[in-house]
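User: Watch each token:
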Amino acid sequence: MTEMEPEQSVYTYRDLVRRLYDLEALAVPPQAGEKSGCFSSYDRRSIYNAETGLYEDWGANDDGGGFLRQEGESSVALELDGPGVIWRLWSALPKEGHIQIFIDHSETPVINQPFRDYFDRFNQEDAPANFPNLAPTLSRGRNCFIPVPFQKHCKVLLDKGWGAYYHITYTTFPSNICVPSFNGSIDKMSAIALAEADRILQQRGTRYFKETEGASDENVTVTVNVPAGGKAVLFDKQGAGALSMIRIRTNIGRKSEEQQQSLARQLAISMKWDNEEHPSVWAPLGDFFGSAPGIKPYRSLPLGMNEHEMYSYWYMPFSEGAKIEIVNDGTEACAVTADLQYTVLLKSYADNLLRFHAKWHRDEFLNLDTERFAEGGDRWPDWPLLLTKSRGRFCGVHLHVYNTWEKPEEEAEKWWYGIGDQKTIDWWWGEGDEKFFVDGETFPSTFGTGSEDYIGYAWAAEPPFPMFDSAFASQPFVEIDANGHTSVNRFQICDNIPFMNSFEGYIEKYKGNQWGFNNQCLYAATVYWYQEQGTNDAYMPVSLDERLANHNNGRNN
């Protein structure tokens, strides 16, 4: 049985690197003073007017070059007091203008190199960087997850000619935490830690990194027949413990595409912790495992699937017991086999851990004033991903977009519908910025530059349209001309968003559910987060009709 360990106050670089793949750490409650967010190049015309209590230019979309302030010919992209760490840099178009990173008020930057080289080079070496899982290029989007820690202060400058569009995600810790201040050079042991992390991320979906050394795992395999209109229990365990692996096998992946799309939504997974009345986890089966519609193979760190099975490595603690059920709202029975791995915990230890939540919804605004979020309202075009109250951590989302339109009669000169401003139809759904409000913020501490930028790719309004995956972001499916279904994931593991009292997460949705005579744009989100034991979220199971709404519609080509 795992026992409670004293709270860590000193972090080595290896400790910070471990946060890239340590899913158990997500269940540890945030400390007062722990904060995460994102600095980005979002359009600075978007403001909150404290006098009126309204938001102005909230849908402004010139997101490529925003900054905090100018210093000479350089733009200040980030400035933070420590202790803290930069987890991720992303850019859609890094160029030759330099990035400069200043640590702990030094007048000399520890990083001073072309912004493009930040993603291509490592440790001032001449050879190209060799961490494909820590610095993936995802459909034109450049990502780098090599941690940059600082004890007192960090400032990032982008010099003239740096390019366009950036995100910098970060965490700052309570003042009593000690982290190593980055000096611009990675020593041998730190480089080995990064190499190990890169390897663990490459092996995603095949093994579980175990944080609690010495704890013994127990494995259960169960096969159930889930009757039409009924449900079956996959796991029912009393006492304290934590699930660390769920692998589901069905024959859905061997069905026709139309059958897959229906079955993966007709079946739902429900999880209850500690004898709660309403489930903390409820989602259609395929959506919970991170893709829709039907079975779309991909591999990420916490979730993935192929035609044979679906896997989850989210860490799921419980104190009084856990119950997992498969619900079948379809018209025919379905056989389900599950392999589950769990660890027995001391109740005193489990009581101090957060509970895992995941919920699927479509257009669920809960108690929001929907008039403010409708076109013409000051909160338009925000679309709510997650609204919850408690202490916890936001860890990401799977977003299924059904965006379809009538093919225009006019033939474009390039690609399918033209490029840039020369399009025959303005079809693109994904300009929407992510906006995360933590603990009652009036202005979000995370304010992004576009839906595809949040995921980690770039320029998705222009073809070609590829599928891709990585440890923390994926596009398991997109139509080859983007007319129809799109499935994307973004998992925030090291850069999860801690909250002490409340979290409100939105993503902009510029297109209405009906945006033309035969044009539709529908969102469905499965959101993943942790919150305190004994607290509930407001999301309830969704009817089958709503889950299948427009799901099998033919494309209007």
About this structure: The two ends are 59 Å apart (CA to CA). The mean pLDDT is 94. Residues 387 and 504 are 5 Å apart (CA to CA).
